[in-house]
Design goal:
Elements (H helix, E strand, L loop, with lengths): L1 H19 L5 H7 L7 H14 L9 E3 L3 E4 L3 H5 L5 E4 L3 H9 L3 H10 L28 E6 L6 H7 L2 E4 L11 E4 H18 L3 E4 L13 H16 L16 H15 L3 H9 L3 H24 L3 E8 L21 E4 L11 H12 L2 H20 L11 H4 L2 E3 L5 E4 L2 H5 L4 E8 L3 H7 L16 H18 L1
Parallel strand pairs: 4-7, 4-8, 8-12, 9-11
Antiparallel strand pairs: 1-2, 2-3, 5-6, 9-12, 10-11
The structure holds zinc ion (ZN).
Length: about 475
């Protein structure tokens, strides 16, 4: 595929060379046409594309706009050949965004690919009068989706997710006993506490998962594997019941086969790709690709069907350069920063599928980006105030900021093309409240002070500070 893309790029260069030689006369007509003068609304869209959405300028090979509207192309060759996937008239921009927000992901994709936008009219916007802004219930009628990151549950599952903290006793003199906890459980505890606080202020709250160790499918990862396996067996008319043996990481081969077979079927994989999934894939591979793809899709579809006024994606960070020792231990570190991510920062290759191109257009044409920036700026201020942790500057020594993110004018807020920042509609804050491997934080976070309904694991009081930060961020966002 990469070779094909490179060849297309080469063709494109050739074509430009020919144009440069003054071959087609259309370039002369273009030269005489008055340059496109965008109005205020169009300029805002173009600014979002330039400042928030395009990380690698090669993506401009798949975009064009003029006085009629904006077009997006499957690849650079399609642009040269003037074969857009979709051309959207400017006047259809807002109606398009509103229409697709009312649809499921697959309906939205069909509607986008059908390209019938001429007769789109504005649907009535969301009723704004639901916000009563009373002092007692300042969030009365506000719909808020909370997405606690990862799955958590047992430490074994957290190892599979690679979302856990283990630090040896004596790693630093302050650490008097071994530390072990996982991010999925911290995130779930935060969501449960935050739901209570927001509901007391009048909000309607959705959680994408609410029980310890449960995925977005409201079942454990193991139960998800079992259901995938039964589906695959039924579809293929066979049974792996007698299959003994385990994957390299200790899971029944039957589950690997089931999840792999469904993934091969959905993705229409053939040849060595499909063979690899059935014979070589470890459970970590199954988790990382088929499971996470399905889980993110499920989270996004639940959130979008709820039509929230805002969405908080709850995560906890670690210092990117911390290294895992043999035996899977981290070092306690001195750095500790908060930050938040919003939609944008599409990198080279990330406009490769119709659904990502549609998402790019949705983010360009809607207010999702400015509203997410405004929400996230308030949440980061809340983190700084309630956690006493500084917002991270645009630190280019961190790969995920340098290579994958774009800084915004808001302190500690970065555009980044994560599955959920891309797929969720409306204002979103993907919060990374603190570094779990910071020396003081890991000592706080291993405390077992809170017992929450739906959770076996007891959690630290520190989560209450994080909840207060989010609540204040949400209140500031709504009130302003
Ligand atoms: Zn996370």
């Amino acid at each position: 595929l990469r070779i094909l893309v490179d060849m297309k790029a080469l063709f494109f260069c050739f074509y430009l060379l020919l144009l440069g030689m003054g071959l087609p006369s259309c370039t002369e007509t273009n030269a005489q046409a008055p340059p496109f003068q965008p109005n205020v609304e169009q300029q805002a869209i173009l600014n979002r594309i330039e400042n928030y959405l395009v990380k690698d300028s090669i993506l401009y090979d798949q975009l064009s706009w003029d006085e009629n509207g904006i077009s997006i192309y499957p690849d650079s060759l399609a642009k040269v050949e003037d074969k857009p996937e979709v051309s959207l008239p400017w006047k259809a921009a807002r109606p398009f965004v509103d229409h697709v927000a009312q649809m499921s992901a697959s309906e939205a994709l069909d509607f986008y690919l059908a390209g019938q936008f001429e007769n789109l009219v504005q649907v009535g916007g969301l009723p704004d009068d639901i916000l009563s802004l009373s002092d007692d219930l300042p969030l009365q009628g506000v719909r808020i989706a909370l997405d606690p990151g990862h799955v958590g549950g047992t430490m074994e599952l957290a190892y599979l997710e690679k979302k856990f903290i283990r630090i040896r006793k004596g790693n630093r003199p302050e650490i008097h006993k071994a530390i072990a906890f996982n991010e999925g459980n911290l995130a779930l505890g935060t969501a449960l506490l935050l739901r209570d606080s927001l509901e007391k202020l009048g909000a309607q709250v959705l959680l994408t998962r609410s029980k310890e160790g449960h995925t977005a499918f409201d079942m454990s990862y193991e139960a998800w594997l079992e259901s995938e396996t039964q589906q695959a067996e039924a579809r293929l008319g066979l049974s792996w019941a007698d299959l003994d043996g385990k994957t390299a990481d200790g899971y029944p081969l039957r589950w690997r086969n089931g999840a792999a077979a469904n993934y091969i079927f959905q993705q229409e994989l053939v040849g060595t790709d499909s063979l690899w999934w059935m014979t070589e894939a470890t459970m970590r591979d199954i988790y990382r690709i088929p499971f996470l793809k399905a889980d993110f899709k499920q989270r996004a579809s639940e959130i979008n069907a709820f039509h929230p006024d805002l969405t908080l994606i709850l995560h906890y960070n670690i210092w990117e350069k911390n290294t895992w020792s043999a035996g899977q231990y981290l070092n306690a570190v001195d750095d500790n920063y908060c930050m938040a991510f919003i939609p944008g920062s599409f990198m080279a290759g990330e406009l490769g599928k119709p659904e990502t191109r549609m998402a790019f257009l949705q983010k360009a044409l809607s207010d999702d980006i400015p509203e997410s920036e405004r929400l996230s700026a308030e949440v980061v201020k809340g983190f700084e105030k309630h956690l006493g942790i500084p917002a991270i500057p645009y630190d280019t020594s961190l790969r995920y900021l340098r290579a994958a993110s774009l800084p915004t004018p808001a302190k500690g807020v970065f555009a980044r093309n994560l599955s959920l920042t891309r797929m969720v509609n409306g204002p979103i804050c993907f919060g990374e409240a603190l570094y779990q491997d910071n020396l003081e934080e890991c000592l706080r976070l291993q405390q077992k002070q809170l017992r929450l309904k739906g959770m076996r694991t007891q959690l630290p009081n520190r989560l209450k500070d994080v909840v207060n930060a989010y609540v204040e961020g949400v209140l500031q966002f709504i009130q302003k």
